[in-house]
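Q: Hi! First time doing this. I have a protein sequence and I read that you can turn it into a structure. Is that right? Here it is:
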Amino acid sequence: MAEAVPAPAPAVPCPDWSSLQADLLISIFATLDIPDLLSSGAVCRSWNAHSSFARRLGPCSASANKQGPWLLYSSASSPSHNTATGATLLRLSTGRAHHLTSLPPPPIRSSYIIGASHGWLVAADENSELHLLNPIRHAHIPLPPLLTLKPVRFLYKNKNRIEFVGHRWAPNYAPASTRYKLYNKAILSSDPSDPSCVVVLMHNPRWQLSFARFGDARWTWVNPYFYCVNYHDCIYDEGDGLFYVLGHSGDLSTFDFKGPDPIMKVLMEPFEINMHCTRYLAKSPWGDLLQVWRYHRVVGDDGESRTNRVKQEMVEIKDLRGHALFVGFNSSFFVSVNDFPTLSRNCVYLAHDKAKSDNLPDKSIL
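A: Yes, that's right. Below is the predicted 3D structure, encoded as structure tokens:
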């Protein structure tokens, strides 16, 4: 007598994850670590499209900021950097690393990084041309050409070698060296997807200012309007739409680039000249403007001072109210130590901002 064969169990329908609603997927993607966000795009076409949109929102969105800061660096010793197109993301709060490959040109390893904000890097290539790079989105946007910058008068070919000629402040430099002598720092007002985005460039001679609105074919030099020199740092305030620019003598000014001509207003006059001090500007979560003075030839702690914009005075402080402050080529920002206990309270973290050597082994940016 034949043994009865049990009937197969009914098949359990496999959920169709590709049909999840777009707003739900994007909300989930916005909470993921950067490596997980990048990996999610490989699931299906739908997830790829929505993860790309989440990347456009950026790891700089409110949800992503809960992850803490990420350090982007290029190192010759890293196995992922066998080619010039590689870089590494390191999450400072956990030590988790993610290797990026096949990034868009120009290669980060051979570029001179002069700014980082809203998830974008400002990079000078080996011809000293400036670009916006987003390593998470694999996006690239060229900025106005070098020759439209006022201090660069013209270029010429000498025995098949292109050289740039500046003002009398500098001799002739080969293209790859010009970027180290000319550019100091760059700041973005917003993500370049915003049509009102403005890029402010701090450059030599004497740390002057030029700016370009998104889509401009040329840089606009600020000096024909005002005598503006010796600036150390700049931040953008989304609340009032102004750039706050800090001078080497502690002076503070605002610039409005929204109209046809820039508008400048002096908030604080110069009060201390120190040639061996680099100054940074940051806006605290509680609304104060902070100047950070970094002394290069003095042994001791860096000082922080609060700027009172109403009374126009400086007040030295030692308490960052449970926060850590990050400065460098990146736009300065605060992180709550209560949320990320691996960071040190009331400390200033410096991402290398003097990477002006062709032989520098490692480059990092926050």
